[in-house]
Amino acid sequence: MSTNKVIQVDGLTKMFGDFTAVNAITFDVKKGEIFGFLGANGAGKTTAMKMLIGISNPTSGKANVAGFDVFTNAEDIKKNIGYMSQKFALYDDLTVKENITFFGGIYGLSRSKIKEKSNALIEDLGLETVANQLVGSLPLGWKQKISFSVALLHDPKIVFLDEPTGGVDPITRRQFWEMIYKAANQGTTVFVTTHYMDEAEYCDRVSIMVNGKIEALDTPKNLKTQFKAANMNDVFLKLARG
Amino acid sequence: MNRFIGFIKKEFYHIFRDRRSLFILFGMPIAQILLFGFAITNEINNVDIAIFDHSKDATTKEIINKISASKYFSIKQMVTHEADIASVFEKGHVKAVLNFEKDFSKNLIKDHKATVQIITDATDPNTANTISNYVNAILQQYQKELNKDITIAYQIVPETRMVYNPELKSVFMFVPGVMTIILMLVSAMMTSISITREKELGTMEILLVSPLKPIQVIIGKVFPYIFLSIINAIVIVVLSIFIFNMPVQGSMLLLALESVLFIISALALGILISTISATQQTAMMISLMGLMLPVILLSGFIFPISSMPLPLQLISNIIPAKWFIIIIKGIMLKGVGIEFIWKETLILVGMTVFFIALSVRKYKIRLE
Fold first, then answer.
1. Which of A50, B107, B269, B273 could form a disulfide with B192 if both were Cys (CB 3.0 to 4.6 A apart)?
2. A147: domain CATH number?
3. What CA–CA distance (Å, rounded) separates B170 from B162?
4. B366: closest CA of chain A, how far (Å)
């Protein structure tokens, strides 16, 4: 296995009864890359992602994430990845600090490490004034940023973001993508699903899933040339309409 | 271990920052035990009665004095016309009328027999029955006093003896039931709600993606409730001993162990419920309808199982609460040891193992 490929997927398939949710997808993701995982609702991207993060068993195929096999070493994968869901799941009835401490704790960080990380995080995001406030009282955009930082707390090799910008305003989205770039520059691989086609333009490479299959995979620039489209939105529409 | 402590700490934050769950956890047991102990009772106290005295002689006066001196009755009014009896009841305050026949004293001396009619308002049959029993008891007591000096008057006085609860204190009957309900409520409902809450919020997904094993997540979720349930059980027992003077005849240790067993079976049920419900509301409805109602109605807590129709009697066997109530009634009121309740204990163990096995099977290690 080449060391700079952190995700290698070969013919990965997931069937629910007779229904093929994910149909033999094959791709790989390089270290430090921002990989956009696009598709309409129901195209199978969430199912595919769940297999990669070790919470859903593939029916067949091969997949290697962060150097570990999804069939045999799902537990090792979990230690090496971060995950943020579209719900920005933090505990509303815990303060910012308590959330950080808790999530640091379940990833097995030491107490001193948690303290160090949590101070750095609070300073980075400018959260000094709200560090001891309940998360429930914070605006959505802040929750999203905290949630992302918490997913990076244990320095994972890869961070999986499931529609991380749903429901937040364009300015916050912009700021959020700056955080993604920063993480990628520091060597974290970012695997992101999104609905927003303008965000697809920010990715290094993009795959587009249609009905469980990956129909296109390239840089946004090449995809636009290939499909003779002005922007990613048109590329997506051309593919999705078949 | 560090992870586990962090998890438990977080769980306690959830509990202590939510007024609703705090109230259910600590307000409910106290409120319920006091309610059942004081308000909902089969005993009678200060029941209003009326007297219709045809003879107005020394004997009837004495009997009336005795009745009014007892704490069970207070004499509301004296009726003077036969026709007024109905209207006395219709007003609703008076629950019974004592109707002394004409020449009561004279008849008693001449025929050794006099009649007093006890008319009770049987719209509430239980109370009516109790009132008539209490009046009878007072009359018999008086009769005994009369016969004291007369050597020939042999009389057979039927004596009922109530064993285990000689004063027929209903609170003794309710304590085991309330304890069962509270433990069920805290263990099953609260855990199922707290687990489904994580599902609803999406944090369960985050926990499953983390290196925590699913079993660690579940143990972390239920552990605080084991702890709180035990505290609740202690509060209930202490309250019933000190406020209601309820005896605990048997071994405290056995009582504690049996309670832990029941708590675990209820927790397993809670986990089971959380695996089949997607939202907190569903979990709550299933807990209330599926657990609380059967516990209240079919466990023998309020309605005796032996007087139920056969199908219900059969159904009552699959309710863990029924066995737990038999066990703790045995320990608390009869003072029996494990040799008399091993069968019930074994049934409870079997059910617990079954629920745990089922919930482990049902618990989706990998979110589908």
1. B273
2. 3.40.50.300
3. 12
4. 5
How many other CB atoms are there within 10 angstroms of residue A69's CB atom? 14
d(CA B7, CA A107): 11
Domain assignment of residue A12, yes or no: no
The domains found in chain B, sorted by start residue, are 2-40+169-362 (no CATH), 47-147 (3.40.1710.10)
Strand order from edge to edge, sheet including B73-79 = B73-79, B47-53, B96-100, B116-120
| Total domains present in chain A | 1
Q: Is the residue at A11 inside a domain? A: no
**Nearest Cβ partner for B202 among A87, A102, A134:** A87
Nearest CA among B220, B12, B207, B2 for reference residue A105: B2
Mutant choice from B205, B208, B219, B365 vs A, greatest count of A C-beta within 10 A? B205
Say if A75 falls within a structural domain. no
What count of other Cβ atoms lies within 10 Å of the Cβ of residue B217?
Answer: 19
Identify whether the C-beta of residue B183 lies closer than 8 Å to the C-beta of residue B229.
yes
Mean pLDDT estimate for chain A: 91
CB atoms within 10 A of CB B251: 15
Is A7 inside any structural domain? Answer: no
Closest-CA distance, B359 to chain A, in angstroms, reads 18
User: What's the confidence (pLDDT) of residue A158?
Assistant: 96
Of A54, A56, A83, which has the smallest distance from its Cβ to B206's Cβ? Answer: A83
* CB contacts, 8 Å: B210 with chain A: 78, 103, 106-107
Interchain contact A83–B (C-beta under 8 A): yes
Q: Is B211 on the interface with A (CB under 8 A)?
A: yes
Query: CB within 8 A of B191, min separation 6: which ones?
Result: B221, B222, B225, B267, B270, B271, B274
What residues pair up with A111 in beta bridges, in sequence order?
none
The beta-carbon neighbor of B10 closest among A78, A83, A102 is A102
Residue A139, CA distances (Å) to A156, B42, B322 in order: 26, 56, 50
A84: nearest CA in chain B?
A: B206
Q: Is the pLDDT of residue A152 over 90?
A: yes
Q: Using the beta-carbon criterion (under 8 Å), do A106 and B211 form an inter-chain contact?
A: yes
Contact residues on chain B for A163, CB-CB shorter than 8 A: none
Q: Does B278 touch chain A (CB under 8 A)?
A: no
Task: Report how many helices (DSSP H) and strands (DSSP E) chain B contains, helices first.
Answer: 17, 4
User: What mean pLDDT do residues A195-210 have?
Assistant: 90
Profile chain B (368 residues) by mean pLDDT over runs of 10 residues: 84 88 83 76 76 86 87 86 82 83 82 81 76 82 74 47 52 80 87 90 88 86 91 88 83 93 93 89 90 84 80 89 90 86 93 88 57
Residues of A with Cβ-Cβ distance to B3 under 8 angstroms: 105-106, 108
